[in-house]
Amino acid sequence: MTTKKFPLAGLIALALSGFLAIMTETLPAGLLPEISQSLNITTGAAGQLVTLYAFGSILAAIPVIGATKSWTRKHLFMTAIAGFFLFNTLTAISNAYWLTLIARFMVGIAAGVVWGMLAGYARRMVSEALAGRAMAIALVGTPVALSFGVPAGTWLGNLVGWHAVFGIMSGFAALLFVFVWGVLPDFAGVKGNAEVTYRAVWQTKGVRPLLLVTLFWLGAHNIFYTYIAPFLATRHIQHVDVTLLIFGIAALVSIILTGIWIDQHLRPLAVASLGSFVIVAVLLAIVHDPVVTNILVGVWGLSFGGAATLLQTALGQRVNNDALDLVMSLNATVWNISIAGAGMIGGLLVQSGHVILIPWLVAVMAMFGWLIVIKHLK
Q1: Global pTM?
Q2: Which residues contact 46 (CB under 8 A, 6 or more apart)?
Q3: Looking at residue 289, what DSSP letter applies?
Q4: Which is deepest, 58, 155, 167, 185, by most CB within 10 Å?
Q5: pLDDT tens digits for range 189-219
Q6: Contacts of 103 (CB under 8 A, 6+ apart)
Q7: Which of 242, 239, 245, 210 has its CA nearest to residue 318?
Q8: pLDDT of 19-61, one tens digit each?
Q9: Which domains are assigned to the chain?
Q10: Contact 359/285 with Cβ under 8 angstroms?
């Protein structure tokens, strides 16, 4: 059942949930020196707060979504938001490294549930003709958090302390819990449907190729995005924050345009976006002018901003509503694996002094994704 009126408030609640998840995940990265000093650990050890969050998301999405598929969707989603409140609060008051690690792992589990449900929830709330637009709105919290929220959180953390910032995130989760309760419609879980299994979803035509595209596209993007600072240094660009702001604004524009066009032009948008990414990566490899580099980063933002919406819309079209959360939890797991893999591969290139090879690797990975899209996305 879908709502008769376009459910803007509910979609905003979903977008704010994604914003909360990204903020919670990435805040430690900007506050590592403060966290390490406060907990009396090394900066590398503090960095494991991000790693444990990612592991929680990777390990939780599939088993938790599978085990709770009979729950009403609103019940499960609100449980995940409550998890953000509880474990961000624990992080905010913890002065012990081991306890902070546990809190980060547990809030990562909550994030895995949110990412496993977000796109499917948005699709359930509207008619098929508006599914892409709804998902574009529901997923807008991610680029907003990356582009504006994380820098603001880092600045605030330096001002009032990292414990206080996680306390603010906890308060935000509490307010969001109330908002979600008031505006998000509920949908029944899956009961007595033997066909709705991960095996059946995995074997559904078109699902595996699209998950492979997610692996290549997101992996390529994250290698570049994670290690953009050392790459920009080779182009004599010192103000990385300005370059990232350019990327973020372009990504927001991309999401808006994707939301307008996706329901009629899904395949052309996906082909054009990935193809543009390949071209930009090659040009970034051979261009050394700082101004042109920043322009190319803006084009990269335009090519990538709608990626999540495009991929998850395509996945959602291949399964029925009962299987939405299962296929999206598979996608969320692949997404997080691509992030983890990108961090390791990019780190090896940087440590070995081969930063200049990053755009070439990105171009090859994106090319593989582009070829799969051309062949399998109809």
Answers
A1: 0.81
A2: 28, 32, 35, 36, 39
A3: -
A4: 58
A5: 776 555 678 889 999 999 999 999 999 999 9
A6: 87, 88, 90, 91, 94
A7: 210
A8: 999 889 888 877 877 888 899 988 778 878 877 888 888 888 8
A9: 8-183 (1.20.1250.20), 198-376 (1.20.1250.20)
A10: yes
